[in-house]
Amino acid sequence: MALRLAALSHPARIEILKRLSASACCSCREVVDHLDLAQSTVSQHLKVLVEAGLVRFEADRQRSRYAVDHAALAGVSASLTQLVDSCCSGSLPKRQD
Amino acid sequence: MALRLAALSHPARIEILKRLSASACCSCREVVDHLDLAQSTVSQHLKVLVEAGLVRFEADRQRSRYAVDHAALAGVSASLTQLVDSCCSGSLPKRQD
DNA sequence: ATCCTCCATCGTCTATCGGCGATGAACGAT
DNA sequence: ATCGTTCATCGCCGATAGACGATGGAGGAT
What we know:
The structure is a homodimer.
Chain A: H1 2-8, H2 11-22, H3 28-35, H4 39-51, E1 55-59, E2 64-68, H5 70-88
Helix pairs in contact in A: 3-4
The structure holds a DNA duplex.
C-alpha cells in the first residue's frame, strides 16, 4: 500500500494520471507535450506508475500505449479508505460521502 | 494532495497512524515502544505527519500528545477518491461502499 | 540507405529521505 | 541540587528520488 501511495505522491504523476485518463490515446509523447517536463523524466514517471501497477503498458510498435488501470486505482483508494476507517474504528461516525 | 499522500507513503508512518488511533494516549514514547525504531526517528515521522496536517500535536508539558486528525485523514481519502473518480469520469459506475 | 520520430535507458548531478546517536531543554521526583 | 524521563533537534551517513541531456534502438517515410 505504501508503495502505491508513494507512486501517487508526486504532483507530476498525478498530472500524468489525469492526462492519461483524459485522452484515449496515451503515448508518452502526448504527456510530454502537456507536462513541460523532459521526455526522459516523463518516461521515468510513467515507469514508476507502471511498476506500481497503477498504469498499464502496452508496447505497440515504437508507439507505446499507456492506460490508467482504473481497478488498481480504485483499489488504492479503497485501501486508504479502509485505513481511515480502521483509524477511526467506530469512534467517528461522521462520514462525508 | 501529493504532500498528504507523501506523508502516508511510508510503512512506518502508517503504523504510527494505526498506533495513534489505537490508543487514546499518544505519547511519542508509546509509539517508540511499539515500533522498534529509534526515538529520534519516530519523532521525525511524527513531525512529518504533523506538518502534513494528518496528526494534531498538543504540547502538554514535556509529555507531548499526538492525535490522529480524523477529518484530515478522511479528507485525503476523499481527495483520492475524487481523483479516481475524475480519472474514471463516469466510465466506472462500480462503487465499493 | 538515409532520415526523422518516438521511446527507453544510462549516466550524472543535486536534493531529499530515512535512519541513527548525541545533545540539550523541560519537567517531575528524590 | 541532582537525577531520570521524555522529547525535539542537530549533525551525519548511505540510499534514493527527481531532473536533465545524451545515446541508441525500432519503425515509418522518402
